[in-house]
Design a protein that fits this description.
This protein has 227 residues and is of the alpha/beta class. 33% of the residues lie in helices and 30% in strands. It is built from seven helices and ten strands.
């Protein structure tokens, strides 16, 4: 197996009135290509912060972060942005779809940042709509969809770029149990059949068990890892 990402002594803080408030502290983490990792911990333990740092949506203060052999802390903003854009898909609890765009347009959004011909974009969107069985919803707007359907569109949008890494922040948090189970089974399939590396943050023991490894965070530090 190849190492997809690795952090060494990763630390992030914000300045508070009485000194530094540590959001992440001395996080050493290694994730291999094709792994499915679950991150658990109470609210405020640093789960989302860690996910945002790994996804390059946020920076860190100390330590090292290596992604696909690239030392993230030494990259210029443009290089970081490209690394993220071409290799990482992000799925949010609150879906983050654009209400004014149709399902088709939402899914196509990440491809607009690439130098792709319109015909190639349209073909990729058509394939993705078909794969997720949402062809019948393609002209609808997000407010016209159920929570499960919106999350499906969010996943389709994240996967259209064929990312090496899929980051999911409480992906079933706003869904009922049946919808949540369908999303988790989809993740399992993506991981097993497509080899997509997945890191999910979850409060649910049941969802965490889908991963081949569970990392427990507390006060920004890794407490233990269960395989």
């Amino acid at each position: 197996m190849n190492t997809l990402l690795q952090t060494k002594h990763l630390t992030k803080w914000v300045d508070g009135g009485s000194g530094r408030i540590f959001l992440l502290r001395d996080v050493n983490l290694s994730v291999e290509q094709g792994e499915f990792v679950s991150i658990m911990g109470p609210s405020g333990s640093g789960k989302t912060t860690l996910l945002n740092v790994l996804g390059m949506l946020d920076t860190f203060n100390e330590g090292e972060y290596d992604f696909m052999g690239q030392p993230v802390q030494t990259l210029k903003e443009r290089q970081r942005s490209d690394l993220h854009k071409y290799n990482i898909g992000f799925i949010f609890q609150a879906y983050h779809l654009i209400d004014e765009l149709t399902v088709t347009e939402n899914i196509e959004t990440p491809l607009r940042y690439r130098s792709m011909k319109q015909s190639e974009r349209q073909a990729a969107v058509a394939d993705t709509l078909d794969r997720f069985n949402i062809v019948g919803k393609k002209d609808l707007f997000p407010p016209q969809l159920s929570g499960g359907q919106q999350q499906l569109v969010g996943i389709a949008r994240a996967l259209i770029v064929k990312p090496k890494l899929l980051l999911a922040d409480e992906p079933t948090g706003n869904l009922n149990s049946k919808q949540g189970e369908e999303i988790m089974e989809l993740f399992k399939k993506l991981n097993k059949e497509d080899g997509v590396t997945i890191i999910q943050v979850t409060h649910s023991e049941k969802n965490a068990a889908y991963g081949n490894r569970i990392i427990h965070l507390l006060d920004g530090m890794i407490q233990k890892t269960n395989n």
